[in-house]
Amino acid sequence: MFIVMIASECAPVAKVGGLADVIYGLSRELEIRGNDVEIILPKYDCMRYEHIYGLQKVLHDLWVPFYDQKVHCSVFFGFVHQRKCFFIEPHSERYLFDRGLYYGHHDDAERFAFFCRASLEFMMRTEKHPEIIHCHDWQTGLVPVLLFDIYKYLGMTHPRVCYTLHNLKHQGVTGEFILREVGLDNTGHYLNQDRLQDNFNSSAINLMKGGIVYSNFVTTVSPQYANEIMTTDQGFGLGHTLYEHRNKFGGVLNGIDYDFWNSEIDRNIPYNYGIDSLDYKFGNKDELRQRLLLRRDFKPIIAYIGRLDHQKGLHLIKHAIFYALKNSCQFVLLGSSTDHDVNDYFWQLKRQLNDNPDCHLEIGFNEELAHLIYAGADMMIIPSLFEPCGLTQLIAMKYGTIPIVRNTGGLSDTVFDADTANKPFHERNGYVFDHFNEEGLESALHRAIGMWYSHPALFRELMINGMKYDYSWNSPGKHYVNIYNYIRE
Questions:
Q1: What is the pLDDT of residues 147-167, one digit of tens each?
Q2: Which domain holds residue 88?
Q3: Virtual CA dihedral for 52, 261, 273, 387, nearest 10 degrees?
């Protein structure tokens, strides 16, 4: 079938978080399954253009209605690692996507509302009639609204919409003037609890809610997160809306790209290894120590890789660093924050620990170093307050690195505790704690460190258990094809 992905990110050309990896990985899997997939993105000035092959302008004069005028746009086409991508470039004095950042501007809602209208205008102009339009997160929440209330009357009656929620903390809550900007003039119609009116603020609209209400099917990125956002405060106000639309809502666990994250073929690590050659992993541990100037000693390396965000449990990450150092372990951190105060705090922590031969904090992000940390570390902590899916634990397991996670979202769906899981030992693959506090984290760290020192054979078995799990895009791809076929019929 013909599928169009509309999104604000796609790895590696425009990446802020896991959304980008999903767009690339799912699109690739759908193509492997014989589908024709095209991706529509904004043309940001800060994209990594070296990852686009054959970039060329394919449409010079796309005119997109916006307020009481039309904005002139160009559309470019190029291959992002063999994925077919279209990039929409508005020629506007507001420089909608020429800001040096993907997100974080006061008018983000307007920028992406325009992108929604421009994407559909481009599809209509070029007579694209996909069976499925797959939209992602609040940035594309207006696509199904516009399709249903404007574009189906202009001839786009064929597409069905699948809408995926990646993180409900960000919903696109904004003023109702946004609707008039994109041609949805009957604001009273939309400022209604059954449509786009925000569940907390009766004078605001919620773009993500619009996507939920108007789509043919709604997914999120793990079964446990689907349950949490419908029944707990993790829904950030959208739980009732999701419950109302529960008959078209479900969780599909994300996958990871094993062509890129795979210890057996990874070109970014000095020693490749697999289940049958696991001892080579320890060569990577030595290389990691040498690169980060850690002392060579008989100690496990505990690591954290990811955004330094309050969602990720910043106080627990800090606590893990000092707990590890007090309990005969080494600690490596790779991450940064968009919050200057958080970044400054971890820079201070880095300076405080700079002379400690058992600790290295790398404030920033380095793709090559991330691969080496996954390969060289013994354990990976993910102490999140909430985690829609989480890719870190999936990658860690592929590299034989034991995940230590909080019992939430996709972490619950993928990590099974070595001591307490309701599974035989050969299906257990990590350590899990329940309470979002230092005592909870310590309970898991204590058990993991204890097994590393006292029961190395069992720890090695746990590593192998994790490496055996298949968290590729194969299973999610199958689920999404089933969803597409369901809503087509």
A1: 999 999 999 999 999 999 999
A2: 2-255+474-488
A3: 160
